[in-house]
Amino acid sequence: MAKIKNKIKTDFETFAFDYDGLIPKLIPHYREQNQLMVDLIPRDRATSLRVLDLGTGTGILSYFIVKNFKNAEILALDLAKNMLEVAQKNLAEYSDRITFQQGDFAECALGMSYDIIISGLAIHHLENPQKQKLFASIFQVLKPGGIFLNRDIVLGATPALTQQYEQLWRDYISSNGEDSDRWFNNYLEQDIPASVEEQIQWLKEVGFVDVSCHWRYLNFAIFGGCKPNSTIKEPLSCF
Ligand SMILES: C[S@@+](CC[C@H](N)C(=O)[O-])C[C@H]1O[C@@H](n2cnc3c(N)ncnc32)[C@H](O)[C@@H]1O
């Protein structure tokens, strides 16, 4: 696992300065997903929000948050220093509302009391038990009523569907003039996606409510849940 983590870090350190130009050619409906991540946050645009962005990369989701929520403050966490360096440049205008932090979200302390936790194309790098552990940590560090939204690469509900989606995904990459063999091999080497169905189950198991897949296109999805306002269990029958 440490080997995969090192490869992920090295790849993103190398890839950082080309990421913004390349990623819409690799991820279908990338720009549409960015906007939808914000539209799915049912909060007044003027409200104060504490936000955690897991796997910030070059900062696209943090950008959509600070641009749309004038009083949002963000902790932007990423493994790769160069990705954060690009994020810092991209978000220079909003630097007073964003803290950039290098770290591994599977290992470091995430802080406390967030209204919103977002993640984009990052959690699929973890093994499934680590994903489950991270979902539990996310639940813990959200405020009651807080929201978790994840846009990620996922598996199909069956191996046959995964295969079908992956072929269509490769066609998308080729249609943009990119080398689909290169990117697909990269995916096979370092990505560990899980199906939406199982991740929704894991979110429910750690206590999230209003859990759903909000958007999906082939092997890409936006899903998440809400921490209940009260985590106190229903009264026992003696009351
Ligand atoms: C594909 S980029 C996504 C960037 C951005 N969130 C987006 O939606 O475009 C994935 C990012 O997650 C980061 N990442 C992967 N695993 C991580 C981990 N365990 N802890 C922190 N960051 C991680 C990578 O360094 C990379 O910058």
CATH architecture: 3-Layer(aba) Sandwich
Helix content: 40-55%
Distinct helical segment count:
9
Q: Which CATH class applies here? A: Alpha Beta
Radius of gyration over alpha carbons? 18 Å
| Spatial strand order of the main sheet | 3-2-1-4-5-7-6
CATH fold-level topology: Rossmann fold
Name of the CATH superfamily: Vaccinia Virus protein VP39
Report the mean per-residue pLDDT as an integer: 95
Quantity of strands, as a count = 7
Strand portion, in percent? 15-25%
**How many structural domains can be distinguished in the coordinates?**
1
Order of helices and strands: HHHEHEHEEHEHHHEE
Instruction: Give the structural class.
Output: alpha/beta
Bound molecules: S-adenosylmethionine
Main beta-sheet strand count, sense and barrel state = 7 strands, mixed
Brief rundown of the structure:
It contains nine helices and seven strands. The chain is of the alpha/beta class and 239 residues long.
How would you characterize this protein structure?
The protein has 239 residues and is of the alpha/beta class. The chain has one domain (2-226): Rossmann fold. It contains 9 helices and 7 strands; from the N terminus they run αααβαβαββαβαααββ. The chain has helices at residues 2-15, 19-26, 30-39, 60-68, 81-90, 128-141, 159-175, 180-190, 196-205; strands spanning 48-54, 71-78, 98-102, 114-120, 142-153, 209-217, 220-226. Strands 3-2-1-4-5-7-6 form a 7-stranded mixed sheet, with helices on both faces. Strand 1 (48-54), helix 4 (60-68) and strand 2 (71-78) form a beta-alpha-beta unit. The chain is globular and about 65 Å long. The mean pLDDT is 95. The chain binds S-adenosylmethionine.
